[in-house]
Amino acid sequence: MNKQKMIRHVVSLLGLLLFVFIAVGSVDDSGESGGSTRPTRPRGSSSTQWFQGGNLHKATVSEWKNASYQNKLATSADWLSATKWKGHLTSPDDFDRLKLKAQMLVNAVDEVISGQQVDYLHVAEIAVALVNMSNDFSP
Amino acid sequence: MKRPLSNSLSFFMHVIMPIAFGGLIYLLFRAKSLLMFRWACAIGLEPYLDYMRAYCATFSIDNSHWFFYSLPDGLWVYSLTAFMLLVWGRKLSRSSFFWVSIGPLLALGGEIGQAFGVVIGTFDPTDIILCLIGSFLPHVVFFPKTSKYI
Question: pTM for this structure?
Answer without folding.
Answer: 0.63
